[in-house]
Amino acid sequence: MRAEALKGHLDALLLAALEAGPAHGFAVMAELRRRTGGTVDLESGTLYPALRRLEEAGLIVGTWTTGPGRRRREYQLTDRGRAALSNERGVWRDFVATIGAVLEPPAPMGAPGGTA
Amino acid sequence: MTGEEPVDDYLTNLRAQLHARPVDPATGDLLDEMRDHLLCSVEQQVAGGVAARPAALRALAEFGRVDTVAGALRGELVRPHLRRLSTTLLLLGVVGGASWVGVLLAGPAEPWTERTEPRPIVLFDAVGEFAGTATLLTAVLGALLIGCTGRFWRHPRLRACAQRWSLRACWASLTLGLLTTAQLGGYLLVRALTAPGSLIWPAVITTTAVTLAVVPLLARSVHTVAAMHPGQLLGSDAP
Questions:
Q1: Distance between CA B210 and CA A99 in Å, rounded?
Q2: What percent of the residues of chain B are helix, what percent strand, and what percent coil, each to the nearest 5?
Q3: Quick one: B57 exposed, middle or buried, by C-beta within 10 A (0-12, 13-18, 19+)?
Q4: Would an 8 Å CB–CB cutoff place A71 in contact with chain B?
Q5: Could B76 and A53 be called an inter-chain contact, meaning their C-beta atoms sit closer than 8 Å?
């Protein structure tokens, strides 16, 4: 899945990837790949403008730590970020339910849930 | 580790494309962060048995082309500078404007009546009132627009639009500010030549010195924003 397909969802994905706890950029990317089974094919460089944006919006907060011999910036969700993630989840579930109701093939006649 | 060389070359190229000053802390922090990301990727591959240099090249390929990454970052990096510029313009407009009005009102009254007012003064008054008010209004608009971009995180187009118009408002405020300064200079010159005793010179000299002292601060802010390809930001939909 390429970046264009993720347009509009990347911010929510990043918030979800940070839900488990603080992580630096590389770990966030690794988490996205792990949870999508590697189907997310995002250029890692585009992650950083998105992280900046979320930080500016007060949804995540970044702090400098020390990595293996170098500076490392870790991000974690703020309360506002958790609320935004929860809201995004709700919107996504509604979207999937609505579109899925139309796109999913109807159950065959007589099948449980189908029309008699 | 030879894997660091391609990474550092890439980041040097990226910095050059961002047109950032070497001492810009925001860009420095971001490049440090990206370096950590790339080296993490190299280390992970090396631990899996890949040689350092091929690992670095693969990490860079996954990271994205320099021009793509620079294009995505430019809009984010220019925002704090734009915020600083709009705040400086606003402060300068309010404080500078109030100071000069105070200096001119505190002294003796203008030594002419409506009928005997020199023509240049009539012109300076008209231009000054318009340019001064417009300078302040555009500075307020620029600061408001750039201040609200954080609220538009769900709407990239709206955020880009606010940023673009904030930049335009800042340029307009700057141009009008220069016009206001020029008319103020002209007004002071005419009044000094025709009625030098009608000005409180110590206050005029002090306020002029303070105004001139702020110029380098403003110029630095303008230079930083201008160096980050504002033309490209103005033309793009989603920085």
A1: 63
A2: 85, 0, 15
A3: middle
A4: yes
A5: yes
The two three-digit tokens of residue A95, written as one number: 């979207």
Q: A4 in contact with B at a CB cutoff of 8 Å?
A: no
A90–B contact, CB cutoff 8 A = no
Total-model pTM? 0.75
Torsions phi, psi for A60 (to 5 deg) = -135, 160
Q: Yes or no: say if B98 and B91 are a contact pair by the CB < 8 Å rule.
A: no
B165: amino acid identity, one letter: W
d(CA A61, CA A55): 6
Which tokens sit at B80? 């704090």
Interface predicted TM-score of the whole assembly (ipTM), two decimals: 0.84
The C-alpha atoms of residue B150 and residue B135 are separated, in whole angstroms, by 25
Question: CB atoms < 10 A from the CB of A93, how many?
Answer: 10
- Whether residue B7 contacts residue B60, with contact meaning beta carbons closer than 8 Å, is answered with yes
For residue B157, give the chain A residue with the closest CA: A8
- Answer yes or no: are the C-beta atoms of A45 and B72 closer than 8 Å: yes
Structure tokens at B67: 């021009």
* pLDDT profile of chain A (116 residues), mean per 10: 69 94 95 88 87 92 89 96 96 92 80 56
* pLDDT tens, residue by residue, B97-124: 899 989 888 878 787 777 788 888 888 8
User: How do residues B155-211 score in pLDDT, each as one tens digit?
Assistant: 878 888 998 999 999 999 999 999 999 999 988 898 888 888 888 899 999 999 999
CB of B102 less than 8 A from some CB of A? no
- DSSP of B210-237, one letter per residue? HHHHHHHHHHHHHHHHHHT-HHHHHH-S
Looking at residue B238, its pLDDT comes to 41
